[in-house]
Amino acid sequence: MEQSTGTDLTDQAPADPAATDDMLASQPIGYWSGLAHSAVTRHLRDAMARIDVTQPQYWVLNRVHGGPAAPTREEVVAQLTPLADGPHDIARVVDQLLHRGWLDAGDGQRLRLTDEGEAARVRLRELVTDLRAEVHRGIGDAEYVAALKVLRTMVANAGGPGAV
To answer: Which of 68, 84, 122, 153 is the most exposed place for a label (fewest CB within 10 A)?
Structure first.
């Protein structure tokens, strides 16, 4: 990927969902990245809602499943709250999953997946894999990696989190 020398600056145009390919360089990244985020998140959450699961529930199941040691409730909440819609959402999700019988708070209040929770996590993983394939249809891995590198550079240029 070419680095910008600063001499190829393009004037910013108003967001235009009907912009032709030759107009895309002038389109605002905030509009397009926001539109992509909204569309992909809605698609994923709608599919999960049809099977009575939420995206934050999937996050918690994955977090409890992964890692070398079973996490505490506090660890899960601290790690996932930045992704959530509000500061109390993940704590509520842990409660929902405990109530549903997909999590168990074992010795020392460490969270573990029950057999039902692991089965749900595996089903959700399959669903998410299928949804990813839908969203990535027509996009090769090299194109996808290039797009993420561009976004990562923009985040770094803007001083955002995870800037490299």
So the answer is: 68
